[in-house]
Amino acid sequence: MKRLAIPVFLMMMGTAGAQTKSGTVAKKAPVKTAPIAKNKLASTPAIKKEDVEEGKVLLSKSDCLACHKVDTKVVGPAYADVAKKYPYSTTNVELLSTKIINGGSGTWGAVPMAAHPALAAADVKKMVTYILSLNTK
Ligand code: HEC
Q1: Is residue 108 within 6 Å of ligand 1 at its C-beta?
Q2: Which residue, among 54, 47, 29, has the nearest Cα to 92 in the 3D structure?
Q3: How does pLDDT run across 68-118, given as a tens digit for each residue?
Q4: Which pTM does this prediction carry?
Q5: How far is it, in rounded angstroms, from Cα 29 to Cα 128?
Q6: Least packed by Cβ within 10 Å: which of 14, 53, 131, 133?
Q7: Are 89 and 40 in contact (CB under 8 A)?
């Protein structure tokens, strides 16, 4: 354990060194950003038929169809249009699931979608998988 103490101490020194005497933070080296979106798209597993079927049932049991239809805009966008806008990927499933749980507006217009905090995240992901499957026939 004693060996660890030296690098930890050096790290602390390094942090302190970032602060100049006048109190302003010294310029940090530019942070390299990895192409996360691309990587995630590449790692998206194939769409699961069971998830699509389960998602469709879950969606019909919730309030979704009061505001959404597959082919026509009602209060919310048509699911076919949502599927066209967002290709099926892990990233997009997560993005849309968060939106459904938290609610929100601004992507399709000013009308907000109600929040759905009572829904389980795993169920919402299946609903989204069903919606996005409408574009991969
Ligand atoms: C009260 C009406 C209403 C209900 C109920 C509703 N939605 Fe929505 N939904 C909307 C509106 C309005 C939008 C557009 C929001 C926007 O423009 O950002 C939307 C957008 C969406 C989007 C696209 C989000 C985006 O950022 O592009 C998805 C996916 C979606 N809804 C799925 C669902 C699901 C699944 C349910 C049921 C759990 C549901 N909605 C229930 C009104 C509703």
Answers
A1: yes
A2: 47
A3: 999 999 999 999 999 999 999 999 999 999 999 999 999 999 999 999 999
A4: 0.76
A5: 39
A6: 14
A7: yes
